[in-house]
Amino acid sequence: MTTSRIAGFYDLPMSQRLNRLAEASGLTPTDLAPFQTLGLDLLLADHMVENAVGTYNLPLGIGLNFVVNGREVLIPMTIEEPSVIAGASFMAKLVRAGGGFIATTTEPEMIGQIQVLDIEDLLIASMKLGEQKAELLAEAKTIDPVLEKLGGGARDLEIRIIEDSPIGPFLVLHLIYDVRDAMGANAINTACEKLAPHIERITGGRVHLRILSNLADRRLAKANCTVPLNKLAFTSKDGRSFTGEQVRDGIIEAWAFAAEDPYRAATHNKGIMNGVDAVVISTGNDWRAIEAGAHAYAARNGRYTSLSTWGMDEDGNLTGELEMPMAVGIIGGATKVHPTAKAAIKLMNVKTASELGEITVSVGLAQNLAALRALATEGIQRGHMSLHARQVAIAAGATGAQIDKVATQMVVEKKVRPDRAEQIMKSIQ
Ligand code: NAD
To answer: What are phi and psi of 113, to 5 degrees?
Structure first.
């Protein structure tokens, strides 16, 4: 039986944390061993990219307290930034008091783009493509028998005319392709390449680009949460008290800023991506694809805005929603190759890409809540500073017990700077 609540996890030494994690998840420490043996060995790395000379490691921590669609889930989060994992875990605790995250995904449909140039009459070519759509789709269905067997494959063809471009008008075909549990880039790129000669024959044009679009706006994930009003009230470490209403209204006011102002929205969405990317990286997925999709989606109406929405329900509880493209897979790419990614997927016990998408978008919403709550109350720096101070201390050369000593003094002095860290180091020595 899995629980995502592990009391005192933070205080355990790292070696014991893995055992507690195994107990809580119903897995064995061996299942989770890649988290502590650095997962990717040199041989594998050499197979994955060109000119490999080594690997690069990042911390992997566990987001606690998450309940997504009624299921307890432990979240593997790979990230170099302090406070993110603590923030997500704390917010997940507040959200679980309101029933946890409710998340959904649309069908895993990706878009493949085929650019057709040198067409004499775009309207006639579009008409011909429309007439031959059934044949083209039938052809597309033969391309990936594995996907077809799994219930995926070609779904539709959309014809677009780009009227105004630096090289004049041209035609674009969108192949809508259900990629099931894959991220789908390779699958869809292959399908677009195979269809290209048929499209040239029908249109008399020249097919140029054949590639998926990372604006995966047909493959969306959405998370909703409710935080009971009484869970929002708190007293900060410097003794300031905030009522539930103050915190709730402060969060809604902070969101309104992001909803209207792209300068703020960029930072607001970056906070969401702190959580999303941490899961995406842990599972060996393509975080550049997720980033590109998220930000393009945030600008889909012509003005860049917040990916999330905050408000209140009729009882005055805080409500949040996050919707974004979610092209993540549990097969293909590095997901089935990287030992740490495989352990991460095992830990979350996800059986479909949709389930992974639902968890990932929930973590994004939790992270957004953590940032808004901090910004709207005590400010982001207080929570951030103690961990940040440790990084500054390490960068200044502190080791072992020195790290906490130097960090604590900098925080007390409110001077978390490399020069101060070096001075404190010298005075200790
Ligand atoms: P893939 O080609 O490795 O695997 C997908 C294939 O696995 C499918 O075509 C299918 O034949 C098979 N399969 C078996 N079981 C399946 C199941 N349950 N569901 C779906 N397919 C199943 O992987 P991919 O997801 O097509 O490609 C992902 C990789 O492509 C990532 O590494 C990404 O970085 C890379 N990529 C991204 C871009 C981009 O985002 N612009 C461009 C090119 C490549």
So the answer is: -105, 135
Residue-wise DSSP of 17-50: HHHHHHHHHT--HHHHGGGTTTS--HHHHHHHST
Maximum Cα interatomic distance, the chain, rounded to a whole number of Å: 81
* pLDDT value of position 37: 84
Give me the residue label for tokens 């097919």: 207
Q: How far is the CA of 74 from the centre of ligand 1 (A)?
A: 25
What's residue 394's pLDDT? 86
Query: Strand runs (DSSP E) across 283-414, as ranges?
Result: 308-312, 318-325
Supply the residues annotated as catalytic: 81, 270, 286, 384
Cα–Cα distance, 311 to 423 (Å, whole number): 47
Which has the closest alpha carbon to 137: 97, 220, 194? 194
Q: Using alpha carbons, select from 65, 66, 74, 83 the residue that is nearest to residue 271.
A: 83
Radius of gyration of the chain (CA): 24
| CA 85/CA 413 separation, integer angstroms | 26
Task: Specify the 3-state DSSP secondary structure of 312.
Answer: strand
Cα distance between residue 28 and residue 22, in whole Å: 5
| Alpha carbon distances (Å) from 75 to 182, 347, 423 | 20, 8, 39
Give the mean model confidence (pLDDT) for residues 63-70.
98
Residue 1 in this model has a pLDDT that exceeds 60: no
Q: What is the pTM of this model?
A: 0.92
Q: State residue 236's pLDDT score.
A: 83
Q: To the nearest whole number, what is the mean pLDDT of the chain?
A: 94
Percent of the chain scoring above 90 in pLDDT: 81
* Cα angle 144-214-139, degrees, rounded to a multiple of 5: 25
Q: Is the CB of 271 under 6 A from ligand 1?
A: no
Give the per-residue pLDDT at 408: 86
pLDDT in tens, 144-157: 999 999 999 999 99
Q: Does 212 sit in the ligand 1 pocket, CB within 6 Å? A: yes
Cα 15 from Cα 2, distance rounded (Å): 20
- For residue 390, what pLDDT is reported? 85
Listed in order, strand segments (DSSP E) in 183-265 are 206-213, 220-227, 234-235, 241-242
Tell me: pLDDT of 237 over 80. Answer: no
239 HSE (CA, 13 A, CB side): 0
CA-closest candidate to residue 83, choices 278, 268, 248, 251: 278
| Host H or E run for residue 229 | helix 229-232
Q: Which atom of ligand 1 lies closest to the CA of 333? A: 32
